[in-house]
Design brief:
mainly beta, six-stranded antiparallel sheet, five-stranded antiparallel sheet, 33 strands
């Protein structure tokens, strides 16, 4: 079914950035969004992961010759009967090679092959067919997922899953990739101890050209450094670096914010009465507050204004914020208000070279679902 995009009033911020809002043609309580050009046409798809038993969708965007989004086509992500993810929270979608991973809370996790720019009609099964069942019908309590080259020096993408530790579930598990673009049949690697884990990132934090595992936990957060352990395979046998003491860190990202060639860690939490976005130096010892929000659920990094440095995108209980990295300052800009937002992704959706914002909305202030939005960046035009 084709629907014309609903274009709202343009939202102008510090020049030269101007956003125009385009609503996606569904209304569901969204938990996560993944932006990827599946069919290589220069206009991205938006993969929408929704709450409870609401279906998940792939939105194929239609762009005109100038790259402007004209319409969207909604495709249900196919699930086995009764196996739509019961996602209560989290950042649970990831691309692993040509596979789409969607984590679940009540049911097993699912992996969907991508072929010819489409999500395959039949899921290929969970990374481990039985998942991590607490009983016969319960799979992983998955709250986070990431992919990359993690466990060894090869070219096969690996998958890292972060879960709650209810029913004795492990916190973070790594599944080794193989030459088929799926996962090895060997047992997954437990990273760290059994602790509630809400988000996970695979990125080189310590600068040794190997992906480390950064975990947002309920309590102390950790960076597990990838090192060469006997018998020479990269693993995570070192004592983790610890950062942050929040009682509930919902999301974490890593990037070079100060331009010195080393990465910093940014975490978003919803502990206590409010939430503080925290920037930790590359040594993971210096703490700096970027901004204060009511409650923060998600954080991402992207160069929104094209000035060559990374800005901070934040999903909050009252909409989406963009913290403009202006020299030594992070200046808050309002993207949306009045909605509970779970994720904000910065990506060039329409192929015009500008960073657009894809906002995954959960509900309005009274709990009713609202459409997700794409904020198209005019790049000063």
């Amino acid at each position: 079914m084709y629907l014309h995009a609903v274009v709202g009033a343009a939202l102008a911020f510090a020049a030269p950035v101007t956003f125009t809002e385009v609503h996606l043609p569904t209304t569901a309580r969204s938990m996560d969004a993944l932006v990827v050009d599946l069919n290589n046409d220069g206009c991205s798809e938006v993969i929408e992961v929704n709450n409870l038993d609401e279906p998940d969708y792939v939105h194929t965007l239609a762009c005109d010759a100038a790259g402007t989004v004209q319409a969207t086509r909604r495709i249900d992500v196919p699930m086995a009967a009764g196996a739509d993810p019961y996602v209560q929270n989290g950042h649970v979608a990831a691309m692993v090679g040509s596979q789409l991973f969607i984590g679940a809370n009540r049911y097993p996790d699912w992996v969907f092959p991508i072929s010819a720019g489409r999500v395959d009609a039949r899921p290929s099964g969970s990374p481990e067919p039985a998942g991590f069942p607490c009983d016969g019908d319960q799979g992983t309590a998955t709250w986070g997922a990431a992919s990359g080259l993690a466990d060894r020096v090869d070219l096969f993408p690996d998958l890292v899953v972060a879960s709650l530790s209810t029913c004795g579930l492990p916190g973070v598990m790594l599944y080794r990739g193989n030459a088929l673009g799926t996962w090895s049949t060997t047992a997954p690697i437990l990273i760290g101890s059994k602790q509630d884990a809400y988000a996970v990132v695979l990125v080189d934090v310590v600068g040794d050209a190997a992906a480390d595992v950064v975990v947002a936990n309920d309590g102390f957060n950790h960076v597990f450094e990838s090192v060469r352990c006997p018998p020479g395979v990269r693993s995570f046998c070192s004592v983790p670096h610890t950062f942050g003491t929040d009682t509930r860190t919902d999301d974490v990202v890593v990037g070079d914010l100060d331009g010195d060639g080393a990465n910093e860690v940014v975490s978003a939490s919803r502990s206590g009465l409010g939430s503080v976005l925290e920037l930790w130096s590359d040594e993971l010892t210096v703490r700096e507050t970027i901004g204060t929000t009511a409650i923060a659920y998600g954080v991402e990094l992207a160069d929104v204004d094209g000035d060559g440095d990374l800005d901070v995108l934040v999903a909050t209980v009252d909409g989406a914020l963009w913290f403009d990295h202006d020299g030594a300052r992070f200046v808050p800009r309002v993207v949306s208000r009045g909605v509970v937002t779970r994720e904000v992704v910065g990506a060039d959706v329409d192929g015009d070279g500008c960073t657009d914002l894809v906002v995954a909305n959960f509900s309005d202030a009274v709990g009713a679902p609202v459409p997700n939005s794409i904020f198209l960046n005019a790049c000063g035009a």
